[in-house]
Automatic annotation (TrEMBL), chain A:
Annotated positions for site Cleavage: 186-187
Catalysed reaction equations from the record: Cleavage of a beta-linked Asp residue from the N-terminus of a polypeptide
Stated name of the protein: beta-aspartyl-peptidase
Source species: Tripterygium wilfordii
MF terms in GO: asparaginase activity; beta-aspartyl-peptidase activity
Keywords associated with the record: Autocatalytic cleavage, Hydrolase, Protease
CDD domains: Asparaginase_2 (cd04701)
Catalytic residue list: 187
Statement: the UniProt record of this protein carries the keyword Nucleus: no
The EC number(s) this enzyme carries: 3.4.19.5
TrEMBL record, chain B:
Subunit structure: Heterotetramer of two alpha and two beta chains arranged as a dimer of alpha/beta heterodimers.
Active-site residues per Swiss-Prot or TrEMBL entry: 199
UniProt EC number: 3.4.19.5
Keyword Hydrolase: yes
Protein name (record): beta-aspartyl-peptidase
Catalytic activity: Cleavage of a beta-linked Asp residue from the N-terminus of a polypeptide
Chain positions of site Cleavage: 198-199
Signal peptide residue numbers: none
Binding site for substrate: 227-230, 249-252
InterPro entries recorded: Ntn_hydrolases_N (IPR029055), Peptidase_T2 (IPR000246)
GO biological process: proteolysis
Amino acid sequence: MGWAIALHGGAGDIPLSIPPERRLPREAALRHCLHVGVEALKAQNHPLDVVELVVRELENHPNFNAGRGSVLTTSGTVEMEACIMDGKTKKCGAVSGVTTVVNAISLARLVMEKTPHIYLAFDGAEAFAREQGVALMDSSYFITSENVERLKQAKEANRVQLDYTQPLSKDEKKQTLTADGDSQIGTVGCVAVDQHGNLATATSTGGFVNKMVGRIGDTPIIGAGTYANNLCAVSATGKGEAIIRGTIARDVAALMEFKGLSLEEAAAYVVEAAPAGTVGLVAVSATGEVTMPFNSTGMFRACATEDGLSEIGIWHSSQN
Amino acid sequence: MGGWAIAVHGGAGIDPNLPTEKQEEAKLLLTRCLNLGISALRSNLPAIDVVELVVRELETDPLFNSGRGSALSENGTVEMEASIMDGPKRRCGAVSGLTTVKNPISLARLVMDKSPHSYLAFSGAEAFARQQGVELVENEYFITEENKGMLKLAKEANSILFDYRVPIAGLESCTAVAAAVDSPLQMNGLPISIYAPETVGCVVVDSQGRCAAATSTGGLMNKMSGRIGDSPLIGSGTYACNLCGVSCTGEGEAIIRGTLARDVAAVMEYKGLGLQAAVDYVIKERLDEGQAGLIAVSKDGEVACGFNTNGMFRGCATQDGFMEVGIWN
């Protein structure tokens, strides 16, 4: 028993050869966000507040695909989505299609606490944001020059892949995957448990590069990208369509609940059952366990527990 | 292999004062939809085509809350959503915030078949609809006089019960609210007579054991613009895998929290329960205080339904000749 926290900055095809100027700022951000979360837990903040706080930090960091630094849609715009859930009450809130809200995760929290609904999207979510008086910014705040370039590359590489009327050749697929190499399908998330066993999860994303306008991924969908109950809290990342299909976050909890598996067994089972290269997740249990499995090349991740474990990683442990 | 089976629903939670002729109308529609599905199954259409076909019929008829006859948002407009899932490969498609697409379920199918994504919403979904050339109509097509009246009533009742900006005081000053407080039957805080719970759905297993599920709705009467409910969410309102197909209806927020549709499959998969036992378990254990219902079929040709409301518009049939249409508990 004791508190535990885990966070991620996206899973995907992160090449081992990623240059230091891309790797180091992200590692520093993970370290910083972990520190913020650990201090908040030590100060007895509720896990719901902790995951919101940590995801806000991750959203504000331009190197991760959420909030500032979100990747661009095929129209060159930003459409962010986020979701938050409290384990004990299973109360939850979600937003999609947010274009001006600085911290989408905090708007999701407001949907949970201040509306009779769970999920608001697009214009309705923006109108709610204005009504609630959350911090808003022009879309130029969210769009980084790196992501403008990324969209350009994705469009060149993707032209054929996204045009579903034509078959996809292997070479083109390869080109797409290596077009940039990091954070293309990234997402940020955080899970936390306090020493009383209170659990919470939060996930936030810009989606993926060159997505169709209006596309909703796994992040805001309770049970897919985000889920918490009284046993565990889970935040997933990777290929949205695979995560939705696999109801990844709920399945970790369902395996614990219905099959009696441990957190680590349940999470490993779910990630192994998903197609290779599509899924990563971070999870904590009510008893303070933590696990961070992924079946992609890498996952930007960090975790800490009350009994002194502290870890930051990108690739599988032998490669870090 | 137990042959084909089909179930349809038109929503859980029913006004106990629903006029008899409305009840008859609902039963006729459910029967017509069942027969449509049965004919398609006898013609060996795959399950995924049958659920789409049946839900199109339910959307096109104005009786239930989907497609034409959808409940109205607080702005008096219609914002429809739907999802569909094919069991064998767990392929799925979903749409939200549709305002001009005559049959949302068919657009969800196109998202599944013709886009790289699983879920498109609002203007992006409408743009996709235009690009795919599906049938479009003016928003007025979906709006019925009856629903205009219901929205008015809902606004009177809701202005206090639902509006979080207004403190709950002076409840007795509003007749609709007084009725709501008096009435034991409420869903999402609304008296059931104006709640419009009639989401539609269909689940099918074909004679080859392939399961599919489809759900479509206009959502909650007087909902905030942009509100997404359980119907388009894979795992909540709709789910299908190689074991079963499930479509849910009722209080959306409770269904989402309970990931109700996936949980029927999950207790079969991880707990080893049979279909009806799984449905009963989920209705009992996964809804907390929420009110909802669901229909389900298994790969072995079983059919089941469950609800903790006073009733659910439903019908089901199996290959061995069983057929049933019901409303009340």
